[in-house]
Amino acid sequence: MPVTTHPPLRVAIFDYGAGNLHSLEKALGSPGVATFIETDPREAIRGDALVLPGVGAFGTAASALAGHRAAMRDAILAGLPTLGICLGMQMLFDGSDEGSGRGLGVLRGRVTRVDADRLPHIGWNAIEEPRDGLLERVGLHEAYFANSYACRPASPEVVTAWSTHGRDRFPAAVRAGHVTGVQFHPEKSSAPGVAFVRAFLEQVRGAARRVMGEDR
Prior knowledge:
Helices cover 29% and strands 30% of the residues. It is globular, with a radius of gyration of 17 Å. The strands form 3 sheets. A 7-stranded mixed β-sheet has the order 2-1-3-4-12-11-10. The chain has helices at 22-28, 41-44, 58-65, 69-77, 87-91, 133-138, 190-212; strands at residues 9-14, 33-38, 49-52, 82-85, 95-96, 109-113, 121-126, 142-147, 149-153, 159-165, 168-176, 179-182.
């Protein structure tokens, strides 16, 4: 029986130009996955999946979309599998009190400052009430956070896990179809965090196989 080879899963990391993406790129790297870092929003949506990283400030990230916000938003809404991490999760929403500019508006809601005396919220914290199969599958019960702002979804149904800091309880993870967002940094959350990222990629690959009706 002939051996069938399949092209690698092409995963774009959209670079806002605000930080080192090496640890995220390393976490995404696995057999059958080809990652590429892209600063052009039009090129970033041409992969098989899109990752919005968690480095930078909201205003800077919004500026990086510079006229191509609608193109990225439309691609995500049309079915491009997307993982938003920390700031990347916040960019999925309408806007933020952290800075000017518009988010992608893929998920309705706004980003506001965390209600706590000690900010930024940095370090390990519990993942509460997870109801996302990926989180449960890899046993991600706590994760590494680095944030002063948090998402406030208009629809609570999209929240798949929570976390608490100070007087605030905020979404640690959200999900709507092929779009996943996490407020924590999985690439800094030890083996379970990396396993979560790779489980997301396997989910993307599995969806592509079902669409094609064959193994990819």
